[in-house]
Specification:
With 676 residues, the chain is mainly beta. The protein has 10 helices and 36 strands.
Length: 676
Amino acid sequence: MAKHDLDPNYLDPNFEPVVNHSGNTSFASVLTARMQRRTLMKGSVGAALASVMGMGLVGCSDSDDDNGSTTGDVQSSTELGFKPVAVSTENRVVVPEGYSTETFVPWGTPITGSYPEYRADGTNTGEDQEQQVGMHHDGVHFFPIDQKSGGNSSTEGLLVMNHEYINQGALHANGPTRAADNGNVRPADEVRKEIAAHGVSVIHIRRDSNGAWDIVFGSPFNRRITGNTEMDIRGPLRGYSKLITAYSPNATQTRGTLNNCAMGPTPWGTYLTAEENWHGYFATADTERPREYVRHGVNDNSRYDWELADTGADEYMRFNVTTTGASSAAEDYRNEANTYGYMVEIDPFTPESKPQKRTALGRFGHEGVIFASAKEGEPVVCYSGDDSRFEYIYKFVSSKPYHAATAGGYLLDEGTLYVARFNADGSGDWLALDLEDADFADKVAAAQGTLVGDIQFDGFENQADVVVNTRLAADIAGATTMDRPEWGAVDPKTGEVYFTLTNNSNRGKEGFDDVNAANPIVENATGHIIRWTEAGNDHTATSFDWDIFVFAGEQGTETVVDGEAVVTLDDTNIFNSPDGLWFDYNGRLWIQTDGSDAAPYQNNMMLAANPVTREIKRFFVGPVGCEVTGVVSTPDVKTMFVNIQHPDGNWPNAAEDRPRDATVIVTRDDGGVIGA
């Protein structure tokens, strides 16, 4: 999630107040226990850490037999065969020698309908935007065009990407009309355009004989999914009373998906898009807010004032979730925000299909979702982070087994949702958020009538109530508060699970959570990457062993295992605020950043890591002011697609006044494998 404010009148795009005041267990108090394995960061931040912790951290040493260590053959395939690039302050993309880039499908590119051309003066209408590529490109995936028949084309496919939020100043010809300056209303077409700039784009693309990529215009696969697209509610919350709205009195449907950050391709070839900081799109005048809103920060201040559109139409009124005052049932949208906060499944090969909100995966600020390798006859397993300070990491295990011939989204409708507890001795536990689980039921009973954070807890009426209150349930279960868990990635060779913990400037401050073993840095400004191995290398297991893969930071920052520095950052690989994370098809780990662009880090970047040796090299630096977010390649790993979000100035076209989010295509000049 971006942390830049491109428009001086624009609200902080994070829009994420700290809303977890549960006081869940911090493990600093048990770090004096005897430890078998230890991980420690050194450097300027590490020195401060040492003064607080007094010792190293627990983790899974690379020398351990049970941590999924890879073979020599695997190591050779994950070597980094490029010369690292330096940090940059230039307003352009920088890649290593022997590589080339070009920009592709920038915001406003026409892809469907009547194909309205992008107007550089900002005068495209809301209807136009519904037919054009959205704004603020984020998570992305390439689906080979022959995937359904078992193929793996690297020359044609569907490029599917998220559009997280917007730059209002660039979106409109003269900037947005502020409600406060316009009789407390906003022009409806401005609102329509802003809603349409969110969501997902499905783009049919093809490479010609000269190696150039282009859109397949007129393809039936080209599609826009926006903040107004009709969607089905699936899983345990389908039909639940707390999701009833005027639009869907039986709580089976809703409209739109918003703040789409990372994503996850499913084992059966569909696309899951994440609803991250969705809470800021809604406003309520209630002084007594339901706990479903309190725990997410829904309040009287919406991000864009969509509820004040001057037509009064329900597609805009629905963003007012005040629980009282509706003049009729047709205007009652008090539960509208409860229909957001999910992973949304889209079938890119079936353009007439409705997106499905898969509620069993939990309701929170999903950064994305990542699947473990699906095995025939076994449950499907996926992981998701809740991208906010002091929130949690979750795992879902399906009730039904995976069978390649029949697999589909139904596998995500029934199962067990777990939340992670990272113990100080390097072990971890998955805590079931299920009323039929005896341990969780006992904790729920013990919490009855107590104050859980800011919420007076009066129990859960059923399992659906647990799911719609996933964060509260995790508080009660005793999960470990994390430093903004964002993207995850599962090593395709070892099964190890990696997660970025971007940063947390409040960690250790007075009134906020103390440090813990998995999040050991006071006022963690630069972040780190954590990883774990499930017990028995079984992703359905309820315990795991973890370590810290790398601490981000300045030159000299060390990650130490058993007294030896396994990573020492230098000019070739300093970075801060790791965000995007992806394993390519050869097992290299790609790390993208969204943090400070001040010295020594400069513009945000993408690095490549060898997960076996922990060697890290800077591969890509973005233009000024951007976040580098979203990466995927073709199956042959010879074309890479990297998304650039919220660039400053007039990137990528110096002749235009407005910045345009865009995808960057990266290739090797010799036609070889990226990163090799």
